[in-house]
Amino acid sequence: MDGEDDLDELLDEVEKKFCSKVSVTSAARVSSSATGRRGKDSEGQRKHGATKPEQPISSVSEDIDALLEELLEEDYSDSPPLKTESFSKGAPAEKKLPAQSAGRKCCPVFVGGSSVTNGVGTATSKRSCDQLRCTSCDFRVLMFDDFEWDSCDYLFLRNNMPDRQKLRAKLKKRRGLRAYACQCSWFSTSEPTDLRDRPQLRWVCGKHLD
Fold first, then answer.
1. Quick check: helix, strand or coil at residue 128?
2. Quick one: DSSP state of residue 161?
């Protein structure tokens, strides 16, 4: 409402100024015409007054336009800026879902002989884990079915792991057993064994693929 009142006042002011300038221009033309008829070179003065008025109407129109532009600029500066949102061209970006690691872990972790089925071990299904990894040396645990360790030592594993052919030098054939080894530990068994009962073995399940 304040903007409309300001616009009305501005138009009134412009109208008064315009009318006063037009009246002054008309009076100037009449006075110049009367003076020209009384003088000798009235013809020259009449042409001069007709071609060069003191305030042409076009200049008055320009003043009106300038005043209107000032008012519009004030209105735009007072109004709050519009919020615009930019949208990228092309197809919308696909939402990336968090990557979920596939597979399951044994709980608890069992190791067993060659007759024990490999797979995901549980408290009711004592399967032998075949995805073992050592948390101490960070090596994958190797398995040898129907073998057991014979006079193995840490230095031997340190120098030959994970070469299966070289490791066989310390293995002895024995049916039903299974030999396990990483770079720092070794173990042989024939029955399902819970690794919680073997704290010296730092072996964990590295997940089984479904």
1. strand
2. T
Coil, strand or helix at 187: strand
Amino acid occupying residue 14: V
Look at residue 103 in the predicted model and tell me its pLDDT.
Answer: 80
What does pTM read for this prediction? 0.52
Looking at the DSSP assignment, which residues form a beta bridge with residue 171?
Answer: 149
Q: Which residues pair with 134 in a beta bridge?
A: 203
Distance CA(117)–CA(119), nearest Å, equals: 7
| 135-156: burial string, b at 16+ Cβ within 10 Å, e else | eebebbbbbbeebbbeebeeeb
Give the residues across from 107 on adjacent strands: 122
User: What's the full length of the chain, in residues?
Assistant: 210
| C-alpha angle 124-201-187 in degrees, rounded to nearest 5 | 85
User: Any alpha helices (H) in the chain, and if so which ranges?
Assistant: 2-38, 42-51, 57-78, 154-160, 164-167
Specify which residues 20 forms β-bridges with.
Answer: none
Three-state DSSP class for residue 67: helix
pLDDT digits (tens, 9 = 90+) for 108-130: 999 999 999 999 999 999 999 99
DSSP state of 140: B
pLDDT tens per residue across span 172-195: 999 999 999 999 999 999 999 999
- Tell me how far apart the terminal alpha carbons of the chain are, to the nearest angstrom: 72
